[in-house]
């Protein structure tokens, strides 16, 4: 049997932009992607702390150490600049493997989205 489990989480980052005219996705600072073990193109769930919106999109790499968190395309309608969001990805694992799996969870600074 296989189950879905939490793989990665970027807990409480500030939205720095929303670009309705971009083709879609969420742009995430490369440093945050690496620290959370999320890869470019990976499906992610977004939870908006400010308004309760919850939706899925995919990750694209932003400039390293920029703090960028930009929602693009239709997802831009579900956030406002300075909203606080959680970015989550999941993995499908065998049940026994899932029992010992350790996810990558990071807690960036909400003021500038840095890891320090």
Automatic annotation (TrEMBL):
Recorded metabolic or biological pathway in which this protein acts: Cofactor biosynthesis; (R)-pantothenate biosynthesis; beta-alanine from L-aspartate: step 1/1
GO MF entries: aspartate 1-decarboxylase activity
Q: How is the cofactor bound?
A: Binds 1 pyruvoyl group covalently per subunit.
Q: Where does substrate bind?
A: 57, 73-75
Give the UniProt keywords, A-Z. Answer: Autocatalytic cleavage, Cytoplasm, Decarboxylase, Lyase, Pantothenate biosynthesis, Pyruvate, Schiff base, Zymogen
Recorded catalytic reaction(s): these are:
L-aspartate + H(+) = beta-alanine + CO2
Q: Which Enzyme Commission number(s) are on file for it?
A: 4.1.1.11
Q: Which cofactor does it need?
A: pyruvate
Protein localization: Cytoplasm
Q: Which InterPro entries match?
A: Asp_de-COase-like_dom_sf (IPR009010), Asp_decarbox (IPR003190)
By its UniProt entry, which Gene3D superfamilies does this protein fall under?
2.40.40.20
Q: What class of enzyme is it?
A: lyase
Q: Where are the active-site residues found?
A: 25, 58
What is this protein for, i.e. what is its function? Catalyzes the pyruvoyl-dependent decarboxylation of aspartate to produce beta-alanine.
**What NCBIfam families does the database record attribute to this sequence?**
panD (TIGR00223)
User: Oligomeric state and partners?
Assistant: Heterooctamer of four alpha and four beta subunits.
What this protein is called in its record is Aspartate 1-decarboxylase
Protein's organism: Flavobacterium plantiphilum
